[in-house]
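agent: user wants the full assembly modeled, not chains individually. Plan: 1) parse entity lines 2) check alphabet per entity 3) run joint structure prediction 4) return tokens. Steps 1-2 passed, two entities, 594 residues total. Proceeding.
--- entities ---
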Amino acid sequence: MAVSDIAASDIVETVPSALLILDRNLNITSANRAFYQIFRTSLEETEGCHIYDLGNRQWDIPALRTLLESVIPHRASVEGFEVEHNFPTIGRRTMLVNARKIFRPGDQDGSILLAIEDVSEERAARAESKRNWQLTQSIVDTIRDPLVVLEDDMTIVTASKAFLTIFGITEAETHGRRVAELGQHQWDVPALRHLMEKVLPENKPIESFEIEDTFPGLGRRVFNLNARKITQPGNHAHRMLLVFEDITDRKQRERDALSLTNEISHRIKNNLQVIVGLIAYEARSTPLPCVQGYKAMQARIGAIAQLYDLISQSSRGPTVAVDAYLREIAKTMSTSLLGNSSGITIEVKAEALDIDPDRAVPFGLLVNELATNAIKHAFPNGKGRVVLCVEQVGDQIELTVVDDGVGMKNKDKDKDKDPAKLLEKRGADYVAIFVRQLGGTIVPPEPQEAGTTVRILLPLLLVPVGAPDRAAA
Amino acid sequence: MAVILIVEDDVFIRGIAEMMIQDWGHETLLASDVDEGLSLLRSPQHIDALFTDIYLKTAVLGGCDLARQAIELRPELRVLYTTGNFITEKMKALFVDGKHFLAKPYTQLQLQDSVVGMLAA
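--- prediction returned ---
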């Protein structure tokens, strides 16, 4: 019997699987085109040849022998018999063999149809995928922070050993389940769910989502959750990596530090309150012209007090946020020097700059002094505006205090005409000291029709990268 | 003129606050902690407003606790808090409705504005 005798001979010739027909003695009676192509042989070399003798006995494979001599005689068909062999002509291959006995009328002995599919590439890809998975899993398992990988339907594909160990659950309990369903539903937080739903479709990572709860076997814990989309090259499927960072100890240290800061702040503020109270007491029996001086002194103390709050609140690390600092100084001056009914306003226009806490006190006092001068001298009619500006100009900080008051030209006309000296006369001794302390310079004022502008250039007071944590010191 | 209960554990600060408030014509009552404050609030003494420090002796949030109990005893009482500490969200959550707040160190003008604002509310 030949392959061409089979009714669907055209199909046989076009199927990608290699087909062989063997007689009862395992001699090849026919092969299809795919067989010749895959195994680089010809009709002449093949037909009539014993299967084991074919191609320099490269088909004399123990596994194939088992199939043909032990399995086939007892069964009508065999499917998915895997044969892995190093063929001299085509190298190492994995073949999936289907075998079927065929009986034609008048053919008592029957034949054997072998369909051989080369699955080498598929098996190699599967092995590679398995190796990659094992590598990924081993990396995942070495990370100390617990983590899980989620499918796009939010179910868990894999959980790290740290995750299983820390939360006391088994891999089987996590697989295919949603994070929100785990444990006592500690992760079932609407805000977290909302964020997680955006990670894959919008490629929007979750950064530092904090959850504090009581966990069985762990007690009260604070976890920081971070999530991001992960993709594998050549794979369209997206997954989410969700990492749980236990920040309980860090949070406790922060709380302890905050508690200490509050305690220190409480004592400092009370001591400053005593000083402000003493000044207030003295001011009661002081002639009216001197009271303003006492008030200015209280404002200076207020400026220093603000600094402690800003350092303790600062979210930018061991530096003081200039913009926030200026706003607090302006607020303090407004309430301590002007009061609610004043017609003078203080505004702030400041860039988001940071300064070294060591320099923040003279900086704050400098601003306080300039603004106090403006309030005291610029508005004889009690109405006007003072603007405190800070911006970075090159490698310097420019501090500008502008008022729309009477200006210097209209004051002390019979005295010194030099604006710089006039500025000194406006109680600028402190200004000069603070500017010197900060290593800055006062820009000589230009004549102006109305108002006064004081410009001071200061070296960039940013804390250099790698500088010691001075605020914490 | 109003009757203002000043609760402050620092004797000097309490004395200066008393002096300032009396200068503006108000009557003052003094207490140094939560218990003393409550004792006056539970008495038949007329009191219009409570001016309390938050950190009272060892009670970190003693002033908040006192004001909450004070409002339960006297719902019409006006409250002005003061502290040298940074105001946390936890503290804010404990503040009674319609409260006023004055940060330490405060000047006489700041205290006067706060007292006037509190009594006018």
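agent: reporting back. Helices of chain B lie at 11-23, 34-42, 62-73, 89-94, 108-120. Chain B has one domain: 3-120.
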